[in-house]
Amino acid sequence: MAEPAKKTENITLDNVAEQKYDLITRRLQEVLGGDTIRAILAEGRAPKCYWGSAPTGRPHIGYFVPLTKIADFLRAGVAVTILLADVHAFLDNLKAPLELVAHRTKYYKHILKSVFTSLGIPTNKLRFVEGSSYQLTREYNMDNYRLCAIVTEHDAKKAGAEVVKQVESPLLSGLLYPGMQALDEQYLGCDFQFGGVDQRKIFTFAELYLPRLGYAKRAHLMNPMVPGLGGGKMSSSDPDSKIDFLEAPAEVRRKIKRAFCEEGNVQENGVLSFVEAVLIPISQLRIERLHGETGADADEGASAVGTQTPFALEGAPEGTVFSISRPEKYGGSLHYQAFADLKRDFADKKIHPGDLKTAVADAIVQLLEPIRKTFEESQEWQEVEKLAYPPPPQPEKKKKKKVYHPPPPGKGKNARADPAVATNGGDSVPASSEEAHSTAEAAKQQT
């Protein structure tokens, strides 16, 4: 993970406001426009933010990173909007028709609310908005046209390079994507937009072009991206790189067992990175909650479902955020209070990849258990899931065409007796060439 976001010192805050700013910006990879947030806090106002997701493929466990971070925002008193970007989902190289996007939007809302509840984050403090509820209005479309009149094709394509699916002949729809995401900041009334570091080019695009329309420049906060299980990007389109929120325990363990996790290698290690980006922050969140450190969010954890303890073994030292179970003959279990110590031990080959994988798989199964249970108990969600992600159509079995092959001369049920064949007591036997010739001559004389 990158170094923590650096504080901006231009605006002095009191202790309470400084603590809020630290909560808002901790564990992020980058902060653009931090002074904007500090100015709002200095005025005693509550900042407003939005986080958006386009409902295309099935959400995967990499989403735990931004969703967990939202707990920090609520603790700092931030008003949070969750955007279900249905129009964006359609525009992204037509990954799904509008009818299918509508079902997937409902599915995303179910899954996100379930994940928030499993993390102890109160959903009643979150505002859920569908993009189509305002992106189809006259006012929004006029602003979109105004934006199109000043944005070059080069800038639009560059802004969406990390987010919009890149193809050889891009559709115009993909070029509209970044501009609409920029306009969302104005129409959702946010002070900062939150997203993954893969959104950076769209964020800088928004900072450049919104002021040209007469709108305020917003701040942008970016979380790190979790590598996939194979070491590359965790992607909804690559089933081997990710684990879905509804994945069965056996499938979770199978995928983790196959994941790239070379002994001593801490680079592009998806298993190790997941501990850093997801498991340890959730453990810290739970430990702080046990100590009553929830800031402005007094409701945090009140409606939580599932296990709410850190990923530490029974009897682990106070403050342990992650434990690895090992038999005594291999040195006994290991307990860590900071990721840096775990990373160092793995690099020094003090931790076997198999032991790390087992601990991570156990933690993921525990994380997903309440989400799967909620799904299994909700008939509505199950019906939505079938509509949102129907099984792919089975290829039609090609029927074999019967081809008529005529029998050879003298064969078949209507064939005349072969003069070259004589009978002997009812049994057919080949006739000699002389017998066949005599028979043919006799037949000629009788006609």
Automatic annotation (TrEMBL):
<dbReference type="InterPro" id="IPR050489">
    <property type="entry name" value="Tyr-tRNA_synthase"/>
</dbReference>
<keyword id="KW-0648">Protein biosynthesis</keyword>
<dbReference type="Pfam" id="PF00579">
    <property type="entry name" value="tRNA-synt_1b"/>
</dbReference>
<dbReference type="InterPro" id="IPR002307">
    <property type="entry name" value="Tyr-tRNA-ligase"/>
</dbReference>
<dbReference type="InterPro" id="IPR014729">
    <property type="entry name" value="Rossmann-like_a/b/a_fold"/>
</dbReference>
<dbReference type="InterPro" id="IPR002305">
    <property type="entry name" value="aa-tRNA-synth_Ic"/>
</dbReference>
<keyword id="KW-0030">Aminoacyl-tRNA synthetase</keyword>
<keyword id="KW-0436">Ligase</keyword>
<keyword id="KW-0547">Nucleotide-binding</keyword>
<feature type="region of interest" description="Disordered">
    <location>
        <begin position="381"/>
        <end position="447"/>
    </location>
</feature>
<protein>
    <recommendedName>
        <fullName>Tyrosine--tRNA ligase</fullName>
        <ecNumber>6.1.1.1</ecNumber>
    </recommendedName>
</protein>
<comment type="similarity">
    <text>Belongs to the class-I aminoacyl-tRNA synthetase family.</text>
</comment>
<keyword id="KW-0067">ATP-binding</keyword>
<dbReference type="InterPro" id="IPR023617">
    <property type="entry name" value="Tyr-tRNA-ligase_arc/euk-type"/>
</dbReference>
